[in-house]
Amino acid sequence: MEPWYSLRWFSPDVWAQFRFSNPLALYFIPTIGMLFVLRYYLHRNSQQRLNMSLGSTTSRTSGSRFSENTIRVNQVLISSLRFLLPGSLFIAMSLLLIALARPQFVQTHREQQSEGIDIMLAMDVSSSMTETDLPPNRLAAARRVAQTFVNGRKNDRIGLVIFAGEAFSLCPLTTDYPLLKQYLSELNDRMIPASGTAIGDALARCINRMRDPAMTQEDSTQTEKKRSKLIILLSDGDNTAGNLDPVTAARLAKAFAIRIYTIAVGRATRSSTSASTIDEGILKTIADIGHGSFFRAADAGRLKAVFDQIDRLEKAPVRVLVYEDIQDYYRVYLYWAISFLLFALFLKNTIIGNVLED
Fold first, then answer.
1. Domain 116-316 is found in CATH 3.40.50.410
2. Which residues form a coiled coil (predicted)?
3. pTM above 0.85?
């Protein structure tokens, strides 16, 4: 940083960076200037001045004219020196007001803190998810919307469970969103050869991923208080497989304070070659037990709207911490003000001041 006597403290670049703690003090500077001007006009006629005559001659040479002009310029310069004393006082008082306004350099640092949310996506990859009522098919539409949902999350740990006749944990809870989206892009109906829809087993897999066995009971309790947990289960069929009843799994999730959102994908279709039914009753029951919500997505637009709604409902509170590093520089202008005051006292209390006033 520059020393206090540096003229850089009066540059526009430095002043543009200042924040004044008491900016009202700056408004008194023009007032003081008006008082000095008023005092000058009131006392101008009462002061005695010595008029100097340069003489008048009828004929003047070019050399005498040059001497006369030089004398006039010197006379103007000398007479202007009488403003040195009031000018010094005005500058000193202005600098005192600037110091009173407390110029500061402020550096602001913002830090956002959020505990985030634990989210498990349970995706149905059974053969019925290849129906084309959601173009190009149900699984592809769900996969695309799930990737968009992952893009909109911040500070949240997200995991992935896939299920058909069996349930498998494909990705643990992670904040590595590119890896999770890669897993989502690779989903297909051939990943699990067992036919059926094991909703209860899928819920159990999600609960097991959220319940970290490495934690002690005390640590687990503290974590549950900090982070919300939820399961988003997406399916298009009945619970026709698995070893665990979905209602029992939903009650287990409730015991671990895990909310459940269920989404029924597609429309019920019947044809000569295939039949697809959606058991909305069990999905609604699961959502009610898990203190979540049930959604019906009959087309791709509605499916995206469902994920958008869940995204709005499940947001972790974000705390914004603002740190301000404040450095005061009023002393710089206070030192300048004292210097001009001392200079004004020197002019006032010496013969120099008397000469300047005459």
1. yes
2. none
3. no
